[in-house]
Amino acid sequence: MKVVCYKIFPRFRPTQLSLLIASLFLGFSSHSLSDNIEFNTDILDINDRKNIDLSRFSNSGFILAGEYEMSVFINKQALPEQTVIIQTQEETNKSTVCITPDLIKQFGLRKSVIEKIVWQQQGKCIDTASMTGLEVRPDLATSALYISIPQAYLQYVDENWDAPAMWDNGIPGALFDYNFNGQTQSQKNGQRLMLNGNGTVGANLNAWRFRADWQSQPGRSQNNQSKTLAQQFDWSRYYAYRAIPGWEAKVSVGEDYLGSELFDSFSYAGVSVASDDSQLPPNLRGYAPEVTGIARTNALVIISQQGRVLKEVQVAAGPFRIQDIDNAVSGKLDVRVEEQDGTAQTFTIETSSIPYLTRPGRMRYKFAAGKSSQSRHQFKGPAFASGELSWGVSNGWSLFGGGVAAGNYNALVLGIGRDLYWLGALSFDITQSRAALPDIAEKLTGRSYRLSYSKNFEQYDSQITFAGYRFSERNFLSMNEYLETRKTGSRQQNSKELYSVTVNKQFRDLRLSTYFNYNHQTYWSLPDNDRYSANLSQYFDIGNLRNLSLSLSAYRTINNGSKDDGVFVSLSIPLGNNATLSYSAAQGRDGTNQRVNYYGRLDQRNSYQVGTGINSHGSTSNGSITHDGELAHLNANVSSQTGKSTTFGFNVRGGATATTKGAALHRSSNMGGTRLMIDTDNVANIPVSSGGLAVRSNRFGKLVSTDVNSYYRNSASLDLNNLPDNVEAERSVVQATLTEGAIGYRKFAVIAGEKAMAIIRLADGSYPPFGATVHNRKKQEVGIVSDSGNVYLTGIAAGESMTVKWAEKVQCSIALPQSLNPQDFTANLFLPCRRDGEI
Predict the structure, then answer these.
(1) Counting runs of H as helices and runs of E as strands, what totals does the chain give?
(2) What is the CATH number of domain 2-166?
(3) Which of 354, 459, 649, 763 is the most exposed place for a label (fewest CB within 10 A)?
């Protein structure tokens, strides 16, 4: 085969030259890797046609044997950079890749395929011929290994989900995440200062995640007669966990809350092994609880369980809906809505789950053992063991059951679930408990019955997320009730009946959506508790005004005989340029409140809101500004009630992550959660986008993105439109599928420095051959020599040293000047290239 080579103009950039040569000489896919290529050098316009080195292009795809650091792509899915072994067969002069056992594990192959693989060289490399359809192509130009595998060979795959073999446990490191809220209120009779904080401190080692949750509520109030100081800081939980992909499970050690589909949640210290729905493909995952309500002012919503803060969120006045609570949370949640004027509304919700169904042939399980606790870090309760199992018997039927054994308390549950297909899903279970209490002579034995139903009516754009009924006999005790009775000596909350229903309905033609939630809890010895919540929202157009929104929300809470009703109506008018004008009116136990607000954006990261209103106590005004910073999320707000009080508030949310690869400050979205560290090759100020706003690398060339999901395929990309002029990158996108809590690590090979034409000369006055390559200290290719030693170099930096390579080895080195001036780049740089020992 003969290829005609046209003259290469010297001002082409190296990347352009490489692409041109590749397209001319290497683009013959119909030939094998060993095909020889002949070059017609007569057409080259150079003085010395014998001084040419095109050996790197003489064999299509030929690569010298050795170990190379390469990124690996399996069906376009990126794996971490790793060492790739290239081998050369002397008989055929072919370059082949050694697919090692460590590499084959990352393919995500089916077990039946793995069993048929033939190994060579005493099990060091696979025989690629034993996998029909497997294609392996190394590419030195991009430092990548491209592997194509027939889809039939792979485990279950999803558009955004990868098989466990492709999961990444990340690198060792430490983290600190925080969320601080502050508020100071000045009144005529004194001043009140409140601070809330919570977060997570942790460390990662291989697959293990070590965590400690903290929360703090220091505060101060002062009036004309007295001063009150309060300070509370507590490590609310110490624990460690790791994923066990082969079991589709998660093991946890330390302080935890029993996460159960069948039993109430309670705190304990011990160990648990449980099926982890988050490790399953998205369509196999379970239900996560949500919290809804209405805030009268800019408020702080605190969601806690048995004293442990799960989430603190600042919300604007009006309805709120918090849906990003961990789906592992179960049982009752305490919700506190702290308004800016110091008042608060509290209520409890039940995080009921959908019917306990399991896919045919699969099993879901949860086992836990340890010592229950009655207060934080004080484990005075009995030792216990619990377990539950759900088995998909056939296509539509599931059997499930479980038990709790804790000395003087025992409980057993049995149930059955049925997928009714177009009618929904239904499950029924019975729980029997038996408890012996110190102050009661006879043992208490009782039963609890539960019926659960869920249905998504797609043809009607409706969904019943959960509808359930539970009845408990007077002598029935859940484990949590038993522990509380054992602690206090009396039965305070003896549950009787629980109704729970959540319904969504969409009217797409009318651009109308509805939402309704109802919880009704009765007790044998206490007043009933009720919680109603409803929302109606509609979008419409008026003339040139588009997408106006009208919303009506209402709630009623009855807690221990105390009633709290509220109604909220709002009209939102988009004005263009990301600005919105809104009117709202609220009616509650504190009277009527009407407000007009204006919301606008200064830029992609900064937004503001101003408003004024009137209520039964007088006129009010408020304002807030939000900054989505690269290092933290910041919010500052102020509100004033004429002649009565002025309130200032703030929120700061962020974190810090340190690893063996580097450290960076960053925003934080999930305390102690999964994150991805991006290395821009020690080059600062490189913009990278990962799941949200672009973030620039710090002075050490590191940044951390927390906008990533566990067990999902996440990607990060260079913002090519905003790259500095003196920066180039070999690739612009990296991907990672990270296990829960991992600190992922990906690196962009970045070339930074000035660009200029240069002339390279050897000590004897000659010049490197045509086709020789220039490499920087990072072994990145920064130029290709053309005729008469001319080369267009990138990544030029003062004091940098470079090497020139031909005949497959380094021949000489270049030392750039210790200082470079702008005029140095107006003409060709003269760069001597010296071999070892030359002066």
Answers:
(1) 5, 58
(2) 3.10.20.410
(3) 459
